[in-house]
Fold these 2 entries.
Entry 1:
Amino acid sequence: MASPAVPFFLLLLFAILSNTFADPDLLQDTCVADLSSGVTINGFVCKPSNNVSANDFFFNGLKNPGFVNNSLGSLVTAANVLMIPGLNTLGVSLARVDYAPGGVNPPHTHPRATEIVFVLKGKLDVGFITTANVLISRTIKVGEVFTFPKGLVHFQKNNGVGNAAVIAAFNSQLPGTQTIAATLFAACPPVPNNVLAKAFQIGTKEVEKIKSRLAPKK
Ligand SMILES: *[C@@H]1O[C@H](CO)[C@@H](O)[C@H](O)[C@H]1NC(C)=O
Ligand SMILES: *[C@@H]1O[C@H](CO)[C@@H](O)[C@H](O)[C@H]1NC(C)=O
């Protein structure tokens, strides 16, 4: 028979793990972010509840397509805690991604969230790569849904003839994005050329060529 300490230990482990699977849970009804506060905590401090209004929970920035006339042919419009301060401590956010024909949302990861997308318009070739280096991919079209597990590198490409768009949902108020190419080749200060040359098994000239084409991340 197991010692009584074992179930307690498992319960404790579960409690700890369940808190690391997504954003920490909230401790009150709302905690509308005071984005102007200089106090830094994990998340944002709450503004006084007598200064909270419906606008803190509202955003109309996803209703129109984003401009896709850029070098990638895609644009991500985020709807996270930075635009919707009422999302602070709630553990969810959205984004809209628009794609020109041929446009790509290049390989990237969200360190703090799983993503699930709903296709609003067009069709997309989507995929993610597991830690075993297996590509899981397929085509999705209007009305369909696809999931990108937390932390895994993923992408979407519009190989259709018309524009495409998705609404993406995340289980984090601020999922964060690391775009692989920009992270490695446009970091500031830069990642040393010799590190990238060795990692990609190419010459430093090729590294410099890639760096010159990727503007530093803002
Ligand atoms: C209420 O919010 C406004 C606008 O964000 C700010 O200027 C004001 O100082 C706030 N008042 C209080 C009492 O926090
Ligand atoms: C993209 O299109 C918009 C709207 O037509 C325009 O305002 C913007 O300057 C364009 N951007 C580029 C990089 O061409």
Entry 2:
Amino acid sequence: MCSNLVSRVLILAWLSAMTTAQTVTSQNNYKDALSKCLLFFEGQRSGKLPPSQRLTWRKDSALKDGSDIGRDLVGGYYDAGDNVKFNFPMAFTTTMLSWSVLEFGNSMGADHEHALEAIRWGTDYFLKATSVPDSVVGAVGDPNGDHTCWQRPEDMDTPRTSYVVTKEKPGSEVSAEIAAALAASSMVFKDSDKDYSALLLKRSIEVFEFADKYRGSYGDSIGSGVCPFYCDFSGYMDELVWGATWLYKATNTPDYWNYVRNNIVGDITEFGWDSKHAGINVLVSQWAMTDANNSSPFILKADQLVCSILPESPAQKSVTYSPGGLLFKPGGSNLQHTTSLSFLLSVYAGYMKANNKVVDCGNTVVVTPAKLVDFTKGQVDYILGKNPLGMSYMVGFGQKFPQKIHHRGSVIPSIDQHPQHIECHGGDEYFKSNSPNPNLLTGAIVGGPAENDTFEDSRSNVAQSEPTTYINAAFVDAIQYIHQVFRIKFHLHHLITLLHTIREHHAPSQWTLIFPNVVPIGGVVVGMLEMYQYVLCLLSGRVTSLESLVCVTSRQVLSSQNFNDKIRNYTLYLLDFLGVRPPSIACTTSLTSA
Ligand SMILES: *[C@@H]1O[C@H](CO)[C@@H](O)[C@H](O)[C@H]1NC(C)=O
Ligand SMILES: *[C@@H]1O[C@H](CO)[C@@H](O)[C@H](O)[C@H]1NC(C)=O
Ligand SMILES: *[C@@H]1O[C@H](CO)[C@@H](O)[C@H](O)[C@H]1NC(C)=O
């Protein structure tokens, strides 16, 4: 007992000397939140569901989408609590999920596969929506018909109208956002599925050309299908530049880069399904930061974004904060702003760190990457329950979460419970009921609390209680960053010193007390897997230098006497934690058979 205590104190001392401590419980919470956040997308699936579907209360739906125009448009996502497929926000969602995987995929563990599935569910559909040259499907499902009824997707009998933009009736924003999604996802699948990746990229190039050549807003062309729900208020130039930015990242073709530089305009503080401006500056900064000739105006604008958000910055703010600390912007579904802006800042932090950059906001407020990560963590923690109500805004996460979300499928009993058809107004009684929703839409993040940190758990308070795909997509990004920084990465030099100390002073039976604490700080970082391999090697006494880091832990080491059961168990725990499947690392086979 006493030595346990000593170990703990020792570790605490080490941790607090190096960083703000992060407990294992909350690290696991981040992993859980990420898994659930991705699971949500299965609940939004339209079309024929695969056998791997995990939210099983959802069934096949909208299997004839596209038949009104003689095409197959089955698949894709329902946008929010309704059953319409709005391709503009759906494409933004897909772009964001792809960005997340491109930034953080390596540290996603088992959720990497689920993230790829979530992206592919979007891209398979976008390939259908763009299969006819010089035309792009902008939405499927008459939104007014859909919004009149309160029906399960599986029962829908409202018009499933297909809304298509063409040369004559263009829609540059929806087309360019789809091009962005296809370009970003082509990079995601580059290693795992080359043919698919090539197909996505080819289509992206064609769709971008269509978007750029035939300019116009889809609100003017197919307004009855998309307005006032997803009218593009910020114009379509931001989507064209955003699309070109992703195409430049995917192809390195100078033409796209010139397009970006020649057309970059406008507002710098907005980022969401409508406006891409701030996202463009941050994305471009990844390469512009290393190239002084190409850094203007992107870096300056991204810096201004940072200073317009951080509470301590003296600059004029583009956001406000609730007394409990949640970021707010005007309009409904506030958490869409919180998640997307937090994500941008955390991505920017990564680029800053890689280039030893800080942001000077004036008045001696100098923002380091660590500061931005802290900020994101604060917002993520608020969403997950560290707030005045002690309530998580993610369904199924924590003890207390929204019970009456505004979502047709979640509110009405499932097909399993109630196989009979429920017609247009048949769902109204469930909407009005005071009971919690019968179907848990696990992982759904709702619009969120009011600006005074209160939350009315009510289906009719749409702004607060409706989930949307783009909130979750941005949250995957934000939480992934936190997950990575606070759990997967280590400061190598400090850790090595720590390990040496542990080895000298503690018996192997005490090691497991120590390892669950990770050391999340800046400086030299490596992936947890490499670190763990090193840890194993070090503890077994076979390596003492950094150069041997890649001495992949051998079966020999693992079966050596130094590795008692606890270490073995801990290894299994860690591998599971990381989602490493047997062939991925050398030692796993003997471990699983142990
Ligand atoms: C930047 O531009 C200057 C002036 O045109 C040129 O001399 C220099 O080589 C450029 N630097 C890079 C990295 O391209
Ligand atoms: C908090 O804000 C909401 C929405 O604006 C309002 O309805 C409610 O009365 C406020 N509650 C308190 C305690 O101020
Ligand atoms: C290892 O894990 C197994 C299964 O969870 C457990 O029964 C056993 O007690 C553990 N051994 C040690 C030494 O912790």
